[in-house]
Amino acid sequence: MKRMEGTSEQEREAKKQKLLKELGNRWLPYLTPKDAEFYQLWQENYSKLMLREANRIPDFLHKEVQQAFLTLRKHGCLFQDLVRIKGKNLLTPVSRLLIGNPGYTYKYLNSRLFTVPWPVEGSNIKYTEDEIFSACTAFFKLNDYLQKDTIQALNKLHLIKSEKNEDGTVFGMIPEFSKSGLDMGDDIELKKRTAYNLTLLNYMDPQKMSYLKEEPYFGMGKMAVSWHHDENLVERSTVAVYSYSCEGPKVIDEDEPNPEGRDPALWHVGLKIAWDIETPGLAVPLRQGDCYLMLDDLNITHQHCVLAGLQPRFSSTHRVAECSVGTLDYILKQCQLVMQNVWDDMEPKTMHLRSLEPSVVKQGEEIHNEVEFEWLRQFWFHGHRYKKCTDWWHLPMSELEGLWKKMECVHSHIYCVLEGKGRRWDKGKKENEFLNSFSSINGNYFTCYNQSYISKILSTA
C-alpha cells in the first residue's frame, strides 16, 4: 500500500520557512543562566519546565541507571533508527532503544518501535543476559521514581498557582506560575497524565558525528535533536528526561566559532514558544545526573531541542505514550474482529464469509493492511535488534503473522467473489458500494482489473 505523507509535516516545514524568512539574517535572542534576566524569563514564559538537579536524586538510583546505560551500550542494544523525514528515509544521528510495558509500541517519526519489556510485577520475561535484566530493572525503578516526582510537581503547581513557592529549591529552580494555574481535574486524570508506560533511551557521541545541524533561529550552536514537539503522547501528559553525560576528554575545535551565550562544552535543552519570534529562547545546561520535567501542556505550547556538548551523552525520556492503537492486545483483538466473519474453512475457494456487507468488507481489509504495514513489516524490519535483549516478541509476532495469513485467504476469497467463482453475489446489492469499499483500501491490488470489467462481473454474478 502506498503510504501518504502527513500534512502536519508539510505544515511544520511551511511554518519554519515562514519564520526564517521573517528573521532574515538576524538571530532571535536567547538567555542562559549567566544572563541577569534568565530566571525571570523562565518564571514568566517557561514556568512548566522543572529542573531536578542531580543532587536531589538518590545516589543509589544514579549508580544503577548510569550503569544500565553503559551495560546496554556494551551489549550493542542501542540502534540508529531509519525514519522518514520530509519524504526521505534517514538514519537518526542518535542511537535509541525503547523499554517499557510488555506488548507496548511507540510510533516515532513514522517508525513503530517495540518495547523491550521491563520486569513488571507478574511478568515472566526471559532476557538474553542477566546484565540486561538488571539494566531494564534500573529503568523500571527510575520510571517509578519519576512518576511519583511528577505527581508531586503537578500538585505543587496546582496548589501554589499564582503564589510564590517558598520551597522552590525542591526542583532546583524557583519558578513563579501564571494565575491560570493548572486544571488538574480529579486524581484519576492526574494519574493518567503521569503514568509513564515507556522510556525512549538515547545515546550520541558528538565527537564521532561528521556533521550536526546548526540551530537555525537563535544561533545556539550544534543540535543533537532539532526543534520539535514530542509526538503520540496522552494529551497534556508530562515528559520526564534523565540526562547522563559520560566522562571523557573535552576537545574544543578552535576553528569552530563558539555560540554566543551558552557553553559549547555542556549539553543543554533549548526551549522556545512554538512559532513565536517575540519571546527570547531559553538554553538550560544539563549536568551529569540532572533531570527535567516538561509539565502539563508545555510540550504542546512550546518546542524543545537538544543542544550538543562535547562529551558522549545518554538520556532516558519517560513518556505517557498514547497506545489506544499501539499495543499487542489491541491488534490481536482487531484480528479477532476479522475472524468472526469467517467460517472454519480457510481455503479461498471453499471459504464462506458470514457477511459481504461493504462496511464489514472494508473493516476487514483495513485491519488486514494495519497488521501488515503497521506491525509485521515494521517489526521484521527492526526485528534483529530485539533478539539482543529478549525473545519476548517472537511468539506473539509469529501468532500475528499466522492471523495475517488467514486474512490473506479472506482477501483471496473476496477476489473469488468478484470473479464469480465463489459465493454468488445477491441480486440487488449495490455493486459500486462494495467495489468502492474494497478498492479504496486495496487500490494498488487492482492493477490487473479495470473497473468496467469488475462491474460487469458483479452485474452478472
From TrEMBL:
Keywords: Cytoplasm, Dioxygenase, Iron, Metal-binding, Nucleus, Oxidoreductase. Residues 35-323 form the Alpha-ketoglutarate-dependent dioxygenase FTO catalytic domain. Belongs to the fto family. It is found in: Cytoplasm; Nucleus speckle. GO terms for biological process: DNA alkylation repair; regulation of multicellular organism growth; RNA repair. It comes from the Eukaryota. This is Alpha-ketoglutarate-dependent dioxygenase FTO. GO terms for cellular component: cytoplasm; nuclear speck. It catalyses: an N(6)-methyladenosine in mRNA + 2-oxoglutarate + O2 = an adenosine in mRNA + formaldehyde + succinate + CO2; an N(1)-methyladenosine in tRNA + 2-oxoglutarate + O2 = an adenosine in tRNA + formaldehyde + succinate + CO2; a 5'-end (N(7)-methyl 5'-triphosphoguanosine)-(N(6),2'-O-dimethyladenosine) in mRNA + 2-oxoglutarate + O2 = a 5'-end (N(7)-methyl 5'-triphosphoguanosine)-(2'-O-methyladenosine) in mRNA + formaldehyde + succinate + CO2; a 5'-end (N(7)-methyl 5'-triphosphoguanosine)-(N(6),2'-O-dimethyladenosine) in U6 snRNA + 2-oxoglutarate + O2 = a 5'-end (N(7)-methyl 5'-triphosphoguanosine)-(2'-O-methyladenosine) in U6 snRNA + formaldehyde + succinate + CO2. One of its GO terms (molecular function) is broad specificity oxidative DNA demethylase activity. PANTHER family: ALPHA-KETOGLUTARATE-DEPENDENT DIOXYGENASE FTO. Its EC number is 1.14.11.53. Monomer. May also exist as homodimer. The keyword Nucleus applies. Its cofactor is Fe(2+).
